[in-house]
Amino acid sequence: MGDILSIIAKRLGLGLITLLVISIIIFFAVELLPGDIAQAVLGQGATEDNLAALRAELGLDRAAPVRYFEWLGNAVTGDFGNSLVSKTSVAEAIGTRFANTLFLATYAAVIAVPVAIFLGVLVALFRNSVFDRVANVVTLTSISSPEFFLGYILILFLAVKGGMFPAIAKIDDGMTLIDKLDRTFLPALTMVLVVVAHMMRMTRASIINLLASPYVEMARLKGVPAWKVIVKHTLPNAWAPVINVVALNLAYLITGVVLVEVVFVYPGIGQLLVDAVTKRDFPVVQACCLIFAATFILLNLAADVGSILTNPRLRHPK
Amino acid sequence: MNYFIIGFYALVIGASSLAAYYQKRTAFLLLFSLTLVSFVMGIVGGEAMLWSVTILAGLIAFSAGVSYSFREFLVIILPADAAKEMRTAPLTAGFGLFVIFTYAISGIFAPIIAPYGEAEVISSAFAPADENMLLGADQLGRDMFSRIIYGARNTVGLALLATILAFVMGATAGLYAATKGGKLDQLLGRIVDVIMSIPSLIFSLLLLSIFGTNTATLIIVIAIIYAPRVFRLARSVGGNVVVMDYIEAAKLRGEGTWYLIRKEILPNSTAPLIAEFGLEFCFVFLLVAGLSFLGLGIQPPTADWGSMVRENATLISFGEITPLIPAGAIALLTVAVNFVVDWMLYRSSGLKE
Question: Does pTM surpass 0.80?
Answer without folding.
Answer: yes
